[in-house]
Amino acid sequence: MARLTPTSYAILGLLAIKPWSTYELTMQMSRAVGHVWPRAESNLYQEPHRLVAAGLATAERRLVGRRQRTEYSITAAGRAELDAWLSEPAAPTVIESETLLKVLFGNRATPEVIVGHLRAFAEQAESGEAHWREIAHDYIEGRGPFPERLHVNTLFWVLLDRWARLRADWARWAESEVATWPTGDGPRDREAVRRLLARALEDGTSLPRSTDVGDGRADG
Amino acid sequence: MARLTPTSYAILGLLAIKPWSTYELTMQMSRAVGHVWPRAESNLYQEPHRLVAAGLATAERRLVGRRQRTEYSITAAGRAELDAWLSEPAAPTVIESETLLKVLFGNRATPEVIVGHLRAFAEQAESGEAHWREIAHDYIEGRGPFPERLHVNTLFWVLLDRWARLRADWARWAESEVATWPTGDGPRDREAVRRLLARALEDGTSLPRSTDVGDGRADG
DNA sequence: GATTGATACTCCAAGTTGGAGTAACCTGTC
DNA sequence: GACAGGTTACTCCAACTTGGAGTATCAATC
Fold first, then answer.
1. Distance B4 CA to C3 C1' (A)
2. Fewest CB atoms within 10 Å of the CB: A154, A159, B15, B72?
3. Which of B116, B163, B174 sits opposite A155 (nearest CB)?
4. Which phi and psi (to 5°) does residue A180 adopt?
5. In angstroms, how far is the first alpha carbon of chain A from the final one?
6. How many whole angstroms separate alpha carbon A97 and alpha carbon A117?
7. A residues 42-81 closer than 8 Å to B (CB)
8. CA B61 distance to own-chain centroid
9. Can you tell me the distance from the alpha carbon of B70 to that of B88, in angstroms, rounded to the nearest whole number?
10. Could you give the angle at the alpha carbon of B68 between the alpha carbons of B66 and B73, nearest 5°?
């Protein structure tokens, strides 16, 4: 019996809400949980098998016409396991971003290419934002499933909403920055970039103004 | 010859700056690149082998005393491959967060447990922020390696810095929210949470004020 | 001369991906 | 009543990745 992974607990957590078929579990994952614990569909289909093998869930097979449908339910042992995991320390939160990787090596690319990546990044963030808004709106109007989960979901949505906005705002700011870069291999104004960076790290709440706005300050 | 992964390009991008030993590559990854493309050390040791097999890098073995040290350099084919990759579309940016997973299922845990997770989350974000500040400070003062990379690094640091602040601020806000939750299984004021959520999604720049601050509004 | 930390790797079982493949059900349209 | 297109319900597998364990040597400090 293999040890449990966070993926196991993600599924177990969903099963603690109500029994689901594997297909429903994949849908639930793409609705919310998957935004902080993204896993491939094939993996989500395997996980309930492991939970059943470990005695943390049970499988009930039914027939819908000639097609089978397996519904998984959590067991008492499963709930105990989930609750124990909840109070253990969590692994660090990480980002995985091919876009940021390309920005980091973007000194080898043309400004147009970088701008293309930044726009796609912003669009992805905005469609994520729209996704939360839609789900959250149902709850605001008193609809939406599992109202007993509203308080924890709200904490979750607020973070993901702010993260989506941060990405969109940053991408727009970065685009305006890239626009100030000299084309080709011309020399850059490193002094201006340094000032920008200094301002960015002092300034707390919003993104720094672009290098080309205002006249910077008399650098001491 | 297996196909290249983003990890291959991350290493290739570093090799495009200068030749490194594998150990130095792992150090560079933990310094910056690894914050947006986190990979296990063992994987970082394997990747240069694949690059050499694909003709994208060369390995030069030297001896330091009796210990060998392999330094990898990018080839012309490697640079071409890297540049081609840079203009291809990037995969979506994702978050992986065990903490958020625990918050989502936190309705099963005690407020104390959740607060513990939120504090650890804030601390992790703050130490990340300190890390950027330290690196960026060198550049602001005109020190720091590879000054020709300053412009792309600045875009990168600004996003990671804002993300770190967002996490720390959110965690503090969330902690104050959790403090308003009734202990045990007492009934929750769902109306208040709904108002909070509505405000959170309207309000743009900062985190919403807590439910217990002010008296909410006369809900229409 | 011993300890500690940095440098320099290898190995492997098990978790995970992502795409391909299969098939039945359901709804609406012509 | 047939067909299309979308939804539900899975399996399979090669290749990628993890994370911990293991093995050394080098360099600086006490």
1. 43
2. A154
3. B174
4. -85, -10
5. 64
6. 11
7. none
8. 33
9. 31
10. 155
Q: ∠ CA(B158), CA(A212), CA(A206), 5° rounding?
A: 35
CB of B48 within 8 A of CB of B25?
A: yes
Provide the pLDDT confidence category of residue A220 given band limits of 50, 70 and 90: very low
Chain A within 8 Å of B31 (Cβ-Cβ)?
Answer: no
Q: For B81-137, write each residue's pLDDT tens digit.
A: 999 999 999 999 999 999 999 999 999 999 999 999 999 999 999 998 888 888 888
State the pLDDT at residue A186.
Answer: 60
Residues 6+ apart with CB under 8 A from B52: B58, B59, B72
Q: Which amino acid is at A63?
A: L
| Contact with chain A for residue B4, Cβ under 8 A | no
Question: Is residue A210 left, alpha or beta, with left meaning phi > 0 and alpha meaning psi from -120 to 50?
Answer: beta
Helices (H), A141-202: 150-178, 190-202
Question: Is pLDDT above 90 for B215?
Answer: no
- In sequence order, the β-bridge partners of residue A68 are A63
Task: Say how far apart CA B182 and CA B169 lie, in whole Å.
Answer: 23
Radius of gyration of chain A (CA): 23
Q: Are strands B57-64 and B67-74 parallel, antiparallel or unpaired?
A: antiparallel
Q: H or E segment at B151?
A: helix B150-178
Mean pLDDT for A194-206 is: 77
Q: Is residue A115 less than 8 Å (CB to CB) from chain B?
A: no
> Which residue, counting CA atoms, is nearest to the C1' of nucleotide C23?
A67
Nearest nucleotide to B50 (CA to C1') is D16
Query: Gap from B90 CA to D23 C1', in Å?
Result: 39
Where b means 16+ CB within 10 Å and e means fewer, A125-146 reads beebbebbeeebeebbeeeeee
pTM: 0.90
Q: CB of residue A21 closer than 7 A to nucleic acid strand D?
A: yes
User: Smallest CA–CA separation between A12 and chain B, in Å?
Assistant: 10
Amino acid at A86: L
- Give me the pLDDT at residue B211, please: 55
Q: Report percent pLDDT > 70 for chain B.
A: 89
CB contact (8 A) between residue B104 and residue A157: no
Q: For A36-50, b where at least 16 C-beta lie within 10 A, e where not — what string?
A: bbebeeeebeebbeb
Half-sphere exposure of residue A17, counting CA atoms within 13 Å on the CB side? 21
CA of A24 to C1' of C29 (A): 29
